[in-house]
Amino acid sequence: MFSNSKDLSAYLIGQISKNFKYSQYLTFISINEILNAAQTIILPSHKNIGGRFIFLDCKKENSKVAALYESNGFKSYQEITMSDGSTYLQMVKIF
After folding, report:
1. pTM of full prediction above 0.85
2. Residue 24 exposed, middle or buried by CB count within 10 Å (0-12, 13-18, 19+)
3. For 1, 14, 19, 92, which has the most beta carbons within 10 A of its beta carbon?
4. Distance between CA 62 and CA 7 in Å, rounded?
């Protein structure tokens, strides 16, 4: 996909997670709403600066989260192994 690229203009969401510590005070927010909000924030920069890709990460063993990302237009790009041995799946969406 990026075989001849030395530089790549992209946006990184990173990992999306939920903190249930204060869940009794919050209403439920779906992953779709979180991704839509992130993309709404990214869109003005995309129009002004450019960039064709949005990246995000999830733990490889969490296939349900990866499936949710895929249902929102992200595709599996590469696996990243951290120094502690944990493996993350990097996913990409093309504007």
Report:
1. no
2. exposed
3. 92
4. 30
